[in-house]
Specification:
Blueprint (H helix, E strand, L loop, with lengths): L7 E9 L2 E5 L4 E3 L4 E2 L3 E5 L7 E9 L9 E6 L2 E2 L4 H13 L8 E9 L9 H16 L6 H11 L3 H4 L4 E4 L9 E5 L6 E7 L9 H11 L1 H24 L2 H21 L9 H17 L4 E4 L6 E6 L3 H11 L11 H10 L7 E6 L5 E2 L2
Parallel strand pairs: 7-9
Antiparallel strand pairs: 1-6, 1-16, 2-5, 3-4, 5-10, 6-9, 7-8, 10-11, 12-14, 12-15, 13-14
C-alpha cells in the first residue's frame, strides 16, 4: 500500500523571529546536546519584515514496504536536505506524544524565509523556533515555552532564545535541560534595531563550523569564556535595570569586538567582517563622538551585516545619519565636516544594499 490517498492527521502554520545576540554565544560545550560554552543575551526582533514561515502537514505512513518516518522539507519552494538536527527535533516531539510512538509518519514541511539565509542574520533561530512552535500546535502537545526552548536548542542553539520575546538570556547549563528564559518583555525598554545589509551571500564558513574551529584552535576563546563574558553579563544586566543606554551601548560594542577577535585568533583565521562592516563601525564611532555620548551601538554576529541598536527617541536622528552617509538621502547642503568626510570615504568602501528597522518583538506565533 502506498501513501497516495492518505489523509492529513495534523497540520499547523507558524512564523518565527530572528534575534540578535548582544553577548555572543560562540562554541558548544556538548556538540550532541548543543549546550553552550558561555551564557548569551539577545534581543528578539519583531516580525514585520524578517521572519521564517513554516507550514506542516503530518500523515500516517501506510507503506508497508517503507516503514519509517519520512520528512519532506522545502525551503523557499526548493527541496532541501534533511539534517540530523531536524530529525532530532521531530523525534523529541514523537517521544512526548505517546500515541505517535508505535507508528511511522510523513512530515511535509514547507519553510519560507523573508531574508537571506546564512548571511549573518539568525535564520536558523527563526526557522527552528518556528518549526518547534508549529509542531507543538499541530500535535497539540501543549508544551511550556521552557520545554519548547529546550527542544529548539536541539535544532539550533540560538533558536532557544527566539522562543521568547524581548530581552532573553540563554544560561550555560551542560545538560539536556539547557534552555533560555526571558529577562524582560518587548515593552520593558523602547529599543530599536537597524540592520544594515551589506552582503546576501552565503558565508564561507558556517557558524557551526566556525565554533568548532575556534574551540580547537583559539587561545583567546577560553579567556573570553572565563573572564570577558561573566563581566559583560553582569554589566549588561545592570544596564537593563538602570535603563542606562551609554553603559549598554559600550558593552554591546565591546562584546562584538571581543567575539570577532576570537574569530581572528582562530586558525586558520575567520573573518566575517568586510570593509563595509568596518565602515559601519566607523560611522557609529563618529556619531557617538560628535554627539558627545553613546547614542547608538553596533554589533555583528557571524556575518558582515551590521546591527545598530539605539533608543526609540533617537530613531529619527540615527536613521537620518545613516541615510545621509550610506544611502545618499537627505544629504543636500550638509555642513558638518565629519559627515562630508564619511560620505567621501563611503564611495571607496563598496556597496551597501539596504537597511531594515526593527522594534523588539514577541516570540514565534501561530498563524490561524
Amino acid at each position: 500500500m502506498n501513501n497516495k490517498n492518505n489523509k492529513i492527521l495534523y497540520s499547523a502554520k507558524s512564523k518565527g523571529p530572528i534575534n540578535i545576540a548582544l553577548i555572543k554565544y560562540w562554541g558548544k560545550e556538548n556538540e550532541n546536546l548543543i549546550t553552550p560554552l558561555n551564557n548569551s543575551i539577545s534581543l528578539t526582533l519583531d516580525m514585520n519584515n524578517f521572519y521564517t514561515e513554516t507550514n506542516i502537514e503530518i500523515l500516517l505512513n501506510n507503506d508497508k514496504n517503507n516503514q519509517k518516518d519520512i520528512i519532506n522539507l522545502s525551503i523557499n519552494d526548493i527541496p532541501s536536505k534533511i539534517t540530523p538536527r531536524i530529525i532530532q527535533v521531530i523525534n523529541k516531539f514523537k517521544e512526548l506524544k505517546q500515541d505517535m510512538q508505535n507508528d511511522f509518519y510523513i512530515f511535509n514541511i514547507k519553510s519560507k524565509n523573508t531574508f537571506p539565509i546564512a548571511s549573518g542574520c539568525a535564520s536558523s533561530a527563526s526557522s527552528m523556533s518556528s518549526l518547534v512552535i508549529c509542531l507543538n500546535k499541530a500535535l497539540q502537545t501543549h508544551l511550556s515555552n521552557t520545554i519548547l526552548s529546550r527542544i529548539a536548542r536541539l535544532g539550533s542553539g540560538s533558536a532557544c532564545r527566539s522562543i521568547f520575546g524581548g530581552i532573553v538570556e540563554w544560561e550555560k547549563e551542560g545538560n539536556e535541560n539547557s534552555c533560555a528564559h526571558q529577562l524582560y518583555d518587548e515593552n520593558y525598554w523602547k529599543l530599536n534595531v537597524m540592520l544594515i545589509i551589506v552582503n546576501q551571500k552565503e558565508k564561507e564558513i558556517s557558524s557551526s563550523n566556525g565554533m568548532k574551529l575556534s574551540k580547537e584552535t583559539s587561545d583567546f576563546l577560553s579567556y573570553r569564556i572565563n573572564n570577558i563574558v561573566p563581566k559583560h553579563i553582569k554589566e549588561i544586566k545592570e544596564s537593563f535595570i538602570e535603563k542606562n543606554f551609554e553603559k549598554l551601548g559600550k558593552i554591546i560594542m565591546k562584546d562584538s569586538n571581543n567575539f570577532h577577535s576570537v574569530c581572528r585568533d582562530t586558525f586558520p583565521t575567520i573573518n566575517y567582517l568586510t570593509e563595509e562592516s568596518e565602515f559601519i563601525i566607523k560611522i557609529v564611532d563618529e556619531i557617538n563622538k560628535n554627539e558627545k555620548k553613546i547614542i547608538c551601538a553596533y554589533t555583528f554576529d557571524a556575518g558582515a551585516n551590521g546591527f545598530i541598536i539605539f533608543e526609540e527617541n533617537n530613531k529619527e536622528k540615527i536613521e537620518n545619519y545613516f541615510d545621509k552617509i550610506i544611502f545618499n538621502k537627505n544629504n543636500e547642503n550638509i555642513k558638518e565636516e565629519w559627515i562630508i568626510n564619511l560620505i567621501n570615504k563611503k564611495n571607496k568602501e563598496g556597496k551597501f544594499i539596504n537597511k531594515v528597522l526593527f522594534n523588539l518583538g514577541k516570540g514565534p506565533e501561530i498563524i490561524e
